[in-house]
């Protein structure tokens, strides 16, 4: 993994991925006690940053391999990203999803042309299902984070943050990134290392699923005790990735861990002051920026809103915190 | 009013107003039966396009006049736009608001440094209050739509639509614009006349407050029977403006009128597929694009989401339509 892979991914994504805005509101600055800049990847195609990694991976395949189709396992956002990219290339996309994924994510994936196969998160291992189907049908497996091209695609978020933060006059401070398997975190960290070395990535995770924070603290990969049931479904992964963790260990500051109540409050404040929809897993970084300022350094903080695919009932619950 | 005033406003706004994205989602295209491109002005500073007009008007004042301060009467979004612009210039802003305006709009205006004065929409005339205060304190009145510089500022939305639609390959079709007093409608219409003559503005209004649609149909200004109580509070005005109506009469196609149920549904679909927050008055154009396609021409339709400042309870009600 290096910056050239990320700039190459940016070239392939040009004209296909959106350059999402870096938003701000004086009311959020007041709450945080410092400037807050929000990278709104919920406004990306398919409603999350995952479109970038999906496109980067599919576009990197040799045409004769790509035309046989791709397969992905995902709690939803990666699925939609890969399905949308596959449809643009006119190739089949088989998507293996947990049966308890939010209905809009399952429906969204089907609408984008994905052939959805559901599995039970408690009793089945998605990697086993993915490997078997890939072998049977000649499909190429696009992993959600432990894939160099996927990390490169997510890293294009970091290239944009570097440029947009500089335009806003911010060259030093912490960049909170919503962290599941660590693909977005690793990609952004690599991009900032090359393009904005004064900006330091801090992975943000929900309580109970803080595997990366504990892994960074201990120096070795740590798993989560439970693997389902959390509010932040999009970023529930068993442990840091084999490709992503070494990158994050080298480049990231300590993890920031937030409560579900803080996540819901961050969603509500993004609604009120930024006018964007954040899903719970996509709001952990903003929650860290707003409510854990004592752990942060600098006059400004940057936070990703990584996705906006949430059930209306969950969003309505978040609004009750206003 | 001419295109030079709009391009001059764009120059003054540069680096201060956001170039908001033109969003899309395949699910909305399916519903509408044509391509749908959405100009998301809810992502503008202060949560609506009104920041543009406020900044354009304040920045156009001679410094010795400007420093005495400005005054505005507004149901909320214009108030916030003027207050934010005044704060940036370090001058006082007195804002006359109806006492039944949504709480977030009143609070938002105060947070931005506005000196808020409330009035009763049923028994008082805001123009009288505004004129008196302006005379007493030497303030310059910034009208919400019947002001050439305000129209020029709103017209910068049209300049961006012309560029962004061309980038998306759209040069012909209808552009639905949320219409209250007609300032955004007139500004966008003037900009498109000069920069994208294949795009035609269609004012969008809620049932019961369709003064511009009826005025365009009859050729003379028509008033609304009632002036408060509607869902779409941001765009409830008594009648078309003296400056705006002649422009809109010359340049716009027939008005499109939508029901409150369609407005709520459009808000919900913007939540689900675009991940942005639309207020009711800001969703009328999208409602027209999605649900009144038989009245539209072309393979693509462009709709403004003009603002996102809504009460959480109203938004939760909209989500129930999903």
Automatic annotation (TrEMBL), chains A, B:
Coiled coil: none
Protein's UniProt keywords contain Lyase: yes
Domain of life of the organism encoding this protein: Bacteria
Domain Tryptophan synthase beta chain-like PALP: 15-306
Keyword line: Lyase, Magnesium, Pyridoxal phosphate
Record GO terms (molecular function): ATP binding; L-serine ammonia-lyase activity; magnesium ion binding; pyridoxal phosphate binding; serine racemase activity; threonine deaminase activity; threonine racemase activity
Example of a GO biological process term: D-serine biosynthetic process
Keyword DNA damage on entry: no
Pfam families: PALP (PF00291)
Cofactor(s) of this protein: pyridoxal 5'-phosphate; Ca(2+); Mn(2+); Mg(2+)
First-tier enzyme category under EC: lyase
PANTHER family noted in UniProt: SERINE / THREONINE RACEMASE FAMILY MEMBER (PTHR43050), SERINE RACEMASE (PTHR43050:SF1)
Protein name per the record: L-threonine dehydratase catabolic TdcB
Gene: tdcB
């Amino acid at each position: 993994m290096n910056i050239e892979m990320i700039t190459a991914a940016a070239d392939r994504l040009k004209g296909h991925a959106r350059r999402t805005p870096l938003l701000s509101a004086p009311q959020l600055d007041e709450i945080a006690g410092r400037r807050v800049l929000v990278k709104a990847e919920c406004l990306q195609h398919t409603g999350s940053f995952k479109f970038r990694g999906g496109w980067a991976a599919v576009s990197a395949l040799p045409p004769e391999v790509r035309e046989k189709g791709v397969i992905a396992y995902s709690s939803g956002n990666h699925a939609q990203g890969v399905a949308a990219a596959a449809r643009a290339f006119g190739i089949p996309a088989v998507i293996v999803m947990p049966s308890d994924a939010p209905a809009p994510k399952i429906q969204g994936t089907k609408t984008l042309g994905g052939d959805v196969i559901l599995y039970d998160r408690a009793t089945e291992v998605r990697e086993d299902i993915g490997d078997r189907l890939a072998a049977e049908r000649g499909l190429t497996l696009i992993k959600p984070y432990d894939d160099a091209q996927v990390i490169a695609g997510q890293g294009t978020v970091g290239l944009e943050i570097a440029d947009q933060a500089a335009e806003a006059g911010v060259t030093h401070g912490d960049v909170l990134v919503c962290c599941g398997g660590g693909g977005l975190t690793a990609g952004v960290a690599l991009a900032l290392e090359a393009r904005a070395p004064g900006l330091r990535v801090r992975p943000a995770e929900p309580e109970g699923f803080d595997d990366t924070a504990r892994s960074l603290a201990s120096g070795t990969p740590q798993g989560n005790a439970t693997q389902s049931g959390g509010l932040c479904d999009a970023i529930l992964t068993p442990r840091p990735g084999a490709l992503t963790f070494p990158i994050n260990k080298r480049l990231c500051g300590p993890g920031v861990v937030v409560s579900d109540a803080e996540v819901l409050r961050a969603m509500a404040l993004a609604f009120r002051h930024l006018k964007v929809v954040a899903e719970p897993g996509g709001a952990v970084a903003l929650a860290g920026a707003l409510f854990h300022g004592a752990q942060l350094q600098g006059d400004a903080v940057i936070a990703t809103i990584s996705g906006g695919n949430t059930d209306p009932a969950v969003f309505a619950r978040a609004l009750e915190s206003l």
